[in-house]
Amino acid sequence: MSIRLPAEWEPQDGILIAWPHAATDWAETLDEVLPVYLQLAEAVSDREKLLIVTPDPDSVRRQLDNAGITRNTIRLARAATNDTWCRDFGPLTIYRGEQPQLLDFGFNAWGLKFAADLDNQVSRRLHHQGCFGAVGLVTDGLILEGGSIESDGRGTLLTTSRCLLSANRNPQLSREQLQARLCSRFGATRILWLEHGLLAGDDTDAHIDTLARFAPEDVILHVACDDQRDEHYAELQAMAAELAALRTAAGRPYRLLPLPWPRPICRNGRRLPATYANYLVINGAVLVPTYNDPADQAAQDIIGAAHPGRDVIGIEARPLIAQGGSLHCLTMHLPKGVLP
């Protein structure tokens, strides 16, 4: 039976998010970040289902009600969480033939950087509660975050060696062994590895979803830097050269769309990994992080053009980037057939 990891722009049942609370790293900035979550919840629930995991569903329901977000497309599930980065601890969905199957990989907080004991159990707890109906869930001991791989839906994966080969993830596996495991799990026929690309302040060791994203019609959107004074210049120029050398499965160059570079955002003297590449595709729309920056509109225009026929919705992400992530990092898409 054929196995396939669908592209994110394929039809979805919904989006999974974890609501911020006082026991997460958002504790000191809840007042700033909750409006972003409410805006995200409204945009998603207008177009598809939204599954919210939280240790306190009653509190979240009151917050949604107070904001006038009362759609029946929103579902709440109770589970304890360390943090809110669902892209990396949520389930990845493959299709076996036409049937979806959930894969629950190990999550160790980006190479043992933070606590992850609760987040690592979320997918299994949601499955046990029946949130995914009759769809099966397979637990896999491989350490793998959803933000570390991109799929074109046709057998090609894009990733970075800096992340997947980091010493605290799967040190027992060589590149060749890891590639074989990924191809087996996802039905991939090839993996494109980037050796360059990194954002200052990034805790993920260069997740691909902060750097380069597949889009329909053999497009890759990627962050770019043309300012020679910027600390990212050499690394992102080298990444751009790598992307230009890549070929599709048919042997053609990809169509590359450089994304603009927001002005540096710093917190406590540390530069934060602000990137427009961390956008979220949902049914009928694409949600683009904005940073109150002159480049915001250009980024929305480019991303919208790469995903034609979808509304483009900017969501203020400065409160999110304070913790090192953005829209894609916060969310896990649930493809068609996953939610009852």
What does this structure look like?
- The structure is a single chain.
- The chain is of the alpha/beta class and 340 residues long.
- The protein has one domain: L-arginine/glycine Amidinotransferase, Chain A (5-stranded Propeller).
- Helix content is 26%, strand content 26%.
- It is built from 11 helices and 19 strands.
- The strands form 6 sheets. Strands 1-5-6-7 form a 4-stranded mixed β-sheet, sandwiched between helices. A 4-stranded mixed β-sheet has the order 4-3-2-19. A 3-stranded mixed β-sheet has the order 8-9-10.
- The longest helix is centred in the N-terminal third of the chain and has 16 residues, at 30-45.
- Keywords: Hydrolase.
- InterPro entries: Peptidyl-Arg-deiminase_porph.
- This is Agmatine deiminase.
- One of its GO terms (molecular function) is agmatine deiminase activity.
Return residue spans where pLDDT drops below 50 for at least 5 consecutive residues.
none
Helical element count? 11
* N→C terminal distance: 24 Å
Globally, the shape reads: globular
- CATH superfamily grouping: L-arginine/glycine Amidinotransferase, Chain A
User: From the coordinates shown, what is the CATH architecture?
Assistant: 5-stranded Propeller
Biggest sheet, in brief? 4 strands, mixed
Relative strand content: 25-35%
- The total number of structural domains is 1
CATH topology: L-arginine/glycine Amidinotransferase, Chain A
What is the CATH C-level name?
A: Alpha Beta
Q: What's the number of extended β-strand segments?
A: 19
- Kindly report the average pLDDT value: 97
- Judged by helices, strands and strand pairing, the structural class is alpha/beta
Strand order of the largest sheet: 1-5-6-7
